[in-house]
Write a structure and sequence with these properties.
Shape: globular
Number of strands: 9
CATH superfamily: Aldolase class I
CATH topology: TIM Barrel
Oligomer: single chain
Number of domains: 1
Number of helices: 13
Strand content: 5-15%
Radius of gyration: 19 Å
Order of helices and strands: HHHHHEEHHEHEHHEHEHEHEE
C-alpha cells in the first residue's frame, strides 16, 4: 500500500505561499513577516509541514525556518551570493565538480519548501540547471572522467522531478561503468512525505546502482507520523538513509534538541550524517551559530549519545578539497 493516499502534486500546488495565509492557519495574529524579504526569496510551505508547527506560537522552531523576516535584509560581513563556491566549481553547465571522485548535478531549481537559511537562495538556477539539451554533454563529461565514481543529484530538490525523468537520469548514470553509486540530496521525505510513493520506492530500490538518500531534517518536530512512515518504507527496501542538519540559532542550537533529533531519526531508519555550520549566504546571517558554541554543543552530543548517532560537525569552505571536519 502506498504510504500516503493524497496526490503529492496536489499537495505541492496547495502549499502556503503567503505569510498571512500560513499565520492565519496557525492562529497567529501579529507577526514579523517581511514583505521585502518575501519578494527577495518567495515563501513556500506544504501543509503537511505546517501541520507540524505549534498553533499560536510565533517562535515555533519549524515556523522560524520558513517565515520571511526583516533580518534577511541585513548585510553581514563575509556573506555572499555564492557562499560555498558552487559557481566557481561549475564545469559543464549544471555539473559542480568540487571534490575528488564525485560530481553534483543541479537537476532542478524547484523545492517543495523554501528554507530561509538556504545556501542556494541566490543561485542562478535558470542558467545552470540540468535539462534534456544539456544532458548529452553532461553524460559525456561523466564518460570522459573515469575518476568519477559517484553522482550526486541535487537542486533545488531532485525528488520534484517526475518518476520518468528521475528514472531516466538514474539509468543513464548507472550505464557508465565507473559510476558506483548515486546519491540523492532531498528535503522532500521530511517536508512532503506524500511524494514517497510505491512507484518512487520501486525506482530507487530497483536501480542498477546503490542509492544513498540524504534527507535534511533540523528538528525532531519535523518527524511527523507521515514522515516516519515514508522513511521506514524506504528503509524496508534497503535504501541507505542518511541525514544532514544545519545548526540554526534559536531553532536547534541546543544539545538536548539535537539529541532528540538523532534518536528520532534512528527510529525512522535514518542515520545522522552531518551537522553543518551555516553556509554564509546573503540573507541568512541571523541564523548563524558561532563555531565555539557549536563545538560545545557537539561535545555534549558525544557525551550523551553512542557514536553512530553523533553527526559529524562540519563547515564548507569554498575552494577546499573536502568539507572541513571541526571535531
Amino acid at each position: 500500500m502506498t504510504p500516503h493516499t493524497s496526490t503529492w502534486q496536489t499537495e505541492l500546488a496547495a502549499a502556503f505561499t503567503k505569510p498571512s495565509h500560513l499565520l492565519r492557519y496557525l492562529n497567529i495574529n501579529s507577526h514579523t513577516a517581511s514583505t521585502l524579504a518575501e519578494q527577495d526569496f518567495a515563501m513556500r510551505v506544504p501543509l503537511s509541514y505546517a501541520a507540524c508547527m505549534e498553533k499560536g506560537n510565533l517562535n515555533d522552531p519549524l515556523l522560524k525556518q520558513v517565515l520571511p523576516h526583516a533580518n534577511e535584509l541585513i548585510q553581514y560581513t563575509n556573506y555572499s551570493h555564492d557562499a560555498v563556491g558552487d559557481l566557481s566549481a561549475l564545469t559543464e553547465d549544471c555539473i559542480i565538480h568540487k571534490y575528488q571522485g564525485r560530481v553534483l548535478f543541479i537537476t532542478t531549481g524547484g523545492c517543495a519548501i523554501n528554507c530561509r537559511f538556504c545556501f542556494r537562495r541566490n543561485f542562478p538556477y535558470s542558467e545552470v540547471q540540468l535539462n534534456k539539451q544539456k544532458e548529452v554533454r553532461v553524460l559525456q563529461y561523466l564518460h570522459n572522467h573515469e575518476d568519477i565514481h559517484e553522482v550526486i543529484l541535487s537542486g533545488g530538490d531532485p525528488l520534484l522531478l517526475n518518476d520518468q525523468r528521475l528514472k531516466h537520469l538514474i539509468d543513464q548514470c548507472a550505464a557508465i561503468a565507473h559510476i558506483k553509486r548515486i546519491r540523492i540530496h532531498t528535503r522532500i521525505p521530511i517536508v512532503l512525505p506524500a511524494r514517497i510513493t510505491n512507484n518512487l520506492i520501486d525506482i530507487l530500490s530497483n536501480a542498477a546502482l546503490p542509492i544513498v538518500l540524504v534527507t535534511h531534517c533540523n528538528h525532531v518536530n519535523e518527524l511527523s507520523e507521515q514522515v516516519v512512515t515514508a522513511c521506514l518504507a524506504l528503509k524496508k527496501q534497503n535504501i541507505t538513509l542518511l541525514n544532514q542538519s544545519v545548526l540554526l540559532k534559536d531553532i536547534n542550537d541546543n544539545a538536548k534538541i539535537l539529541q532528540e533529533l538523532s534518536e528520532g531519526l534512528f527510529n525512522c531508519g535514518v542515520l545522522p550524517y552531518y551537522l553543518h555550520l551555516l553556509d554564509k549566504a546573503t540573507g541568512t546571517g541571523h541564523f548563524e551559530v558561532q563555531q565555539e558554541q557549536a563545538l560545545k554543543i557537539h561535545q555534549q552530543l558525544q557525551n550523551n549519545l553512542p557514536g553512530y548517532l553523533v553527526p559529524k560537525l562540519v563547515k564548507e569552505q569554498a575552494g577546499e578539497a573536502s568539507k572541513t571536519l571541526l571535531i
